[in-house]
Known about the structure:
Layout: H1 12-19, E1 38-43, E2 49-53, H2 63-76, E3 82-86, H3 99-107, E4 110-111, H4 122-125, E5 141-145, E6 153-158, E7 164-168
Parallel strand pairs: 2-3, 4-7
Antiparallel strand pairs: 1-2, 5-6, 6-7
Bound molecules: zinc ion (ZN).
Amino acid sequence: MVSHSPASPPSRAAILEILDSVKDPEVPVLSVRELGIVRDVEVDDAGAVTVTVTPTYSGCPAIQAIEDDILAALATAGVADARVVTSYAPAWTTDWIEADARAKLKAYGIAPPRPAEHGGLVQLLRARTAPPCPYCDSRDTEIRSEFGPTACKSVCWCRSCGQPFEEFKAF
Length: 171
Ligand SMILES: [Zn+2]
């Protein structure tokens, strides 16, 4: 955990490091930074911190929890003067998830999102081919349900290794 003396304003780098400890409630293997939810961090001359976040999709129920978690992590690290603002434009896309974060998803047993075809929510409802299995890389897979435990993931099944797995849908 990063901490700093209240006498000196926190650096932007220190804030980003703190945000790395905040995991996404729906994808706990990734931090809110790795998921691309944190769009900007500003520290003004008085040391007041503003974190700009973009929810993974409009109306995402997790966004309030994410804001609370960010503020709690900053407070724990001694950054009391902080606020979180939400920005909806540009809309978040799974393309903002970096390569190393995709590898973490796969290692966790979640098929990472494929490149987004920008069609907004319509994309969630369209018939799609199943993603490769994150466990054995087989393409002999099927989508069992378009909506898993959370709306942004589908439930898939691998015919090769018999593992059910989730796919982080691209949008
Ligand atoms: Zn498999």
